[in-house]
Amino acid sequence: MTTQLNILACVDGSAVTESVCDYAIWYANKLNLPVALLNAIDVPASTRRSLAGSIGMNSRQNLLEQLTKIDEQRSQIANDYSKALVEDTKSYINGKSDVEVNVFRRRGKLLSVIEFYKDSSRAIVMGRRGEDHKNDHINIGSQIETIARSSSVPILICSEDFKTPSSYMIAFDASDTAVKAVGLITKSPVLKSLKGHIVMIGNHDDSSRQSLVAASEQLKSAGYLVDTHHLPESNAVDGLLAFQVKNDVDIIVIGAYGRSKFQQLFLGSTTTKVIAKTTSPVILVR
Length: 286
Prior knowledge:
Distance between the termini: 26 Å
Largest sheet: 10 strands, mixed
Number of helices: 9
Shape: elongated
């Protein structure tokens, strides 16, 4: 039995929800797939605590009963909010497009819920909260990084109002992750009709430069419209973002966390910093 694939749009009612829906519509139309609205119902922890102490048995029992009722009410409120949220976002999508919309609601943390639906997900769209895009140390959200490290499908991260993409740039560093990302891009029609750039920043050796040329030829052979750029800037993040602004690039495509999390603690992550500092959508390819 074949599983129906969807573009999984993670919605939580935050300020970026409409943007998530709009980019999910765009992605779904590119692949002729439905959008699946996903809301993870993360019920707050129980308010009950250990009531052991000097108060009497009856008092403890009465308090436990009251706290149990509060927990039940909180759970019901979370469920009602989730239901209203997906109904509203479904109406929003139906009002803007004729793309098919499915609804996924499940209790649990977002990562575990995404894992539950992984077999039916062709790509994931999620929002990046936060107004400050200039701080290298901005917290992009632990959920984004955790999901990106575990996901086997592309993830589109957005934070601003939707703009129909007409161009993209691939951040290329000749790593195994970057080479694999290019290979995956050539197998998808999502970016094929857009103007493309493949960009390598820094002074690389001959092997890396040859890898850049090979990646560019691979894209062109697959029918992609792409220009190749090797720029001498020393800082990869600033170089990539400067190129993006200068060339009015709409989408940044980058490999998802080539280094291990342990290494990142010491070396930092180009991927994380690009997500943090740009206002444009970023597609993570793993």
